[in-house]
Write a structure and sequence with these properties.
Two copies of one chain form a homodimer. Chain A has a domain of 226 residues: NAD(P)-binding Rossmann-like Domain (Rossmann fold, 3-Layer(aba) Sandwich), CATH 3.40.50.720. In chain A, 42% of the residues lie in helices and 19% in strands. Chain A contains twelve helices and 14 strands. Chain A has a seven-stranded parallel sheet with strand order 5-4-1-6-7-8-12, sandwiched between helices. A three-stranded mixed sheet of chain A has the order 9-11-13. A two-stranded antiparallel ribbon of chain A has the order 2-3. In chain A, helix 5 links the parallel strand 7 and strand 8. In chain A, helix 4 runs parallel beside helix 5. Chains A, B: Its EC number is 1.1.1.410.
Chain lengths: 327, 327
């Protein structure tokens, strides 16, 4: 089988690629494991060389139908659609966000539909689909009420994936990811970038600005668990998914609910007072507004019934980051 | 000021046009009433001649940006976007539904945005955005979970209108209409067509097929009240709307919750046993599935706070139909 990862040169895309290459197989249409013969990594930038003959890096515009037609054929059993314009950037550049987060997602679904073989499509969504006055714990059936263009575009793509699945065009699965922390690398344009920055930069002896109040509650997932969930989400049996109550093809992944204060305490536990001193507190209204509209916790009973797990504690998350990224 | 009605040759469009011409004015951007100088009725078919110099009938494809650019200029203070592919047809022809219910709505918003004058856009949505396991009474914050392509497309257009409003591109208002009954004319491809047919046809001495069980509960609104709500929805002050709790630019209009049995009893009261004998009961699984996924009642406290009213009883609805359409 072939597998496609859009956003395959990105942080999660590369991690997922590495995991799939290690496994060497993935559940096929009948639920039986099949060998992965080709892993296509499509992105606007070239993915690094994996030194693996199965990997085929493709550079192209994901909103261009011809590019997607080249990337997807009837052997493409699984598509992980990770490519996205992040929240801060989609708010700053409305047209770009619409083009990538909405149009490209729809074109991807259309190309899958045209192929006619009903591939599994795993689509990552976000806390940002929620907003407004929220209950303390967001349930699977809490209304979508995005307060950002990013959240709007993700909510729309979710609705499309559900309808394309209902009609039998694809076998879709939407995984709503908590904010991923700790991401390696540099800050990005996501409004939630600080959720990694205030841990990562201090561990590197660099200053990091925290733009939200210390009481702000975040809903976090480590990269390790995110990759596990993506693979498990793809392998879930369609019948098991359809037997779940609620909005059936959308799964809120388990996270941990942590305040900024608690994140800082965890950093202190792992790396001491010196590290914590690198965090500067400078509230930024634009970010407070976006991040403040997201839920700090959601009900994950459906995910748990499917065997999807979150992290044990934020201290563990930091330790895993140190292990994975700072060897 | 100019006013645009898309779907202006349709049943609601024509009714709304007549009402606006009678009124002669509409609240402008500052809330003060302004004279309507031009009323553009855009549709795929020509609207009938209103014998009124203010009316400008335009025939064109609403998904064609050039057509919308011709229909909307910076004097267009209000847009009533009624054009749509109905539920049954959007289910039968997926691409057509996407093109009109989604792409045309988005293009309309884009043209308004490009004009830069932030017109009021009144968009009609539907019970069909809800579905799945529903509470007895649907609240404004009940999750969107459409079980049809029509409902999906309407839900997406709602999300777009909210975001375009939040960003200041338009001043949008989504009115979720109950099923309109009694519609005049002939049956159409809406899954809910029978909700008018089982009253209208018997009153004409014709047979009508009821495709759902008699216990099916519908959420109905008369054409008179629908037109009142469209005008009032357009004239609502943006500040009043924004002060409401919940998903602020979406308003569930008040309906009456009536079972098919109760509809038939009302018909008997108005037109006697002879009329009722014209109803044949032949369940149609395709329609039972779509209609059965819609809520039979929703919470309308927000609409009521805005002064929007439903009908007093279904007997009154039938009597109003006879008065308006069978003179």
């Amino acid at each position: 089988m072939k597998v496609l990862i859009t956003g395959g040169a990105g942080f999660l895309g590369q991690r997922l690629a590495r995991r799939l290459l290690e496994r060497g197989e993935l559940a096929g249409p009948n639920g039986r494991a099949e060998k992965i013969s080709t892993l296509v990594l499509l992105d606007v930038a070239a993915a690094p060389d994996f030194g693996d003959a199965r990997v085929k890096a493709m550079v192209g515009d994901i909103a261009d139908r011809a590019v997607l037609e080249q990337a997807i054929d009837t052997d493409t059993t699984a598509v992980f659609h990770l490519a996205a314009i992040v929240s801060g950037q989609a708010e700053a550049d409305f047209d770009l966000g619409m083009r990538i987060n909405l149009d490209a997602s729809r074109t991807l679904l259309e190309v899958c539909r045209a192929r006619g073989h009903r591939p599994r499509v795993v689509f990552t969504s976000s806390v940002a689909v929620y907003g407004g006055t929220l209950p303390d714990v967001v349930e699977d059936d809490t209304a979508l009420n995005p307060q950002s263009s990013y959240g709007t575009q993700k909510a729309i793509a979710e609705l499309l994936l559900n309808d394309y699945t209902r009609r039998g065009f694809v076998d879709g699965r939407v995984l709503r990811l908590p904010t991923i922390s700790v991401r390696p690398g540099r800050p990005n344009a996501a409004a939630s970038s600080f959720a990694s920055g205030i841990i990562r930069e201090p561990l590197n002896g660099e200053t990091s600005v925290c733009p939200v109040p210390r009481s702000t509650r975040l809903w976090l997932l480590s990269p390790r668990r995110a990759i596990e969930a993506l693979v498990a989400g793809c392998e879930l049996d369609a019948a098991v998914l359809d037997a779940l109550p609620g909005n059936r093809r959308v799964i809120n992944l388990p996270g941990i609910s942590v305040s900024v204060d608690e994140m800082i305490a965890a950093l202190r536990e792992v790396a001491g007072d010196e590290a914590v001193k690198h965090i500067r507190h400078e509230p930024d209204d634009r970010i407070v507004k976006i991040v403040g509209s997201w839920p700090g916790r959601w009900d994950t009973s459906r995910a748990e019934r499917l065997g999807l797990r979150g992290d044990a504690s934020f201290v563990d998350v930091i330790r895993a980051y140190v292990e994975d990224e700072r060897k």
